[in-house]
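User: I'll paste a sequence; please echo it back and then give the predicted structure.

Assistant: Echoing your sequence first, then the prediction.
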Amino acid sequence: MILYPNAKINIGLNIESKRSDGYHNISSVFYPLKGSYDILEITKSPVFLFSCSGIKIPNGENLCEKAFKLIDSKFSISPVHIHLHKRIPIGAGLGGGSSDASFTLKGLNQLFNLKISNIELEKLSLKLGADCPFFIENTPKYVEGVGDKLSPLSLDLSEYNIKLINSDIHVSTMQAYSSVVINSSKSLILDDILNPISEWKDTIKNDFESNIFSAYPLLENIKNDLYKEGAIYASMSGTGSIVYGIFSKK
C-alpha cells in the first residue's frame, strides 16, 4: 500500500490564550496542499520495521512508529514494514510529521479492515500530535482549541497558485510558543476568511511572525519579496519557517 501524506498551510494563526496544561488555544484555517507530499509505503511483514529515505529525519521514534503502536495496542494487528520517503521540509510549519502519522493510521485502518470511523481516527490521532486530526479528513477546516476542534470550511484555492519558499531555517515549535504574545483584540479569522483574498493582507495575521521575523529577518524579507512579485496574500505557515504566497494564475 502506497500513500501520499500531504502538507498543509495555515491561513492566519491567532493565539487566543494559554491553557493551564501549558498548551495554547489557537484559531486558524488549515488548508491542504495535495501537490506537496511525502511517500509512505505500508506492507505486511514478519516483524515490525520502519525505514526512511529522502530528507534526513531526526533520531528518535518516528510518529509513524508511534501510530503503529497506537493501533496495535487497541487492535493487536500483525507486524508491518513502514517505509517513509521524506519530501516535506521538517520544522517548516507544513505539518509533514503530523500528516505522516495520520496517514499511517488511515493506512493501517484500510490494510487490516479495522473499520475505524473518521471521528475515532481523529481522537486517536490527537494522541500523536495537535495537528494530526486535520489530516484524517484532509479538507479545509477552521481549527480551534489545541487543534482538536475542527469545523468544515468552504474554501477553494484551486484557481490560484500557491508558491512555497523554503529558507532551510528550522524553527523550533517550543521556541516559537515561548516568545509569542497573546493579543485578544484581533478580528476573527473565521469572519475574515470569507472576504475576498485581496483583503486578507490587512486582516488575517500569523501571531508568530513578529518574534520569528525578529529572530530570522530573512523570513520577513521573503514575505516582502513575495508581495513584490505580485502575491495577493503572503504569510509564514504555522510556527515557520516556510513562507508562502498566493498568486493569481493569470
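Residues 10 and 30 are 5 Å apart (CA to CA). The longest strand covers residues 24-37.
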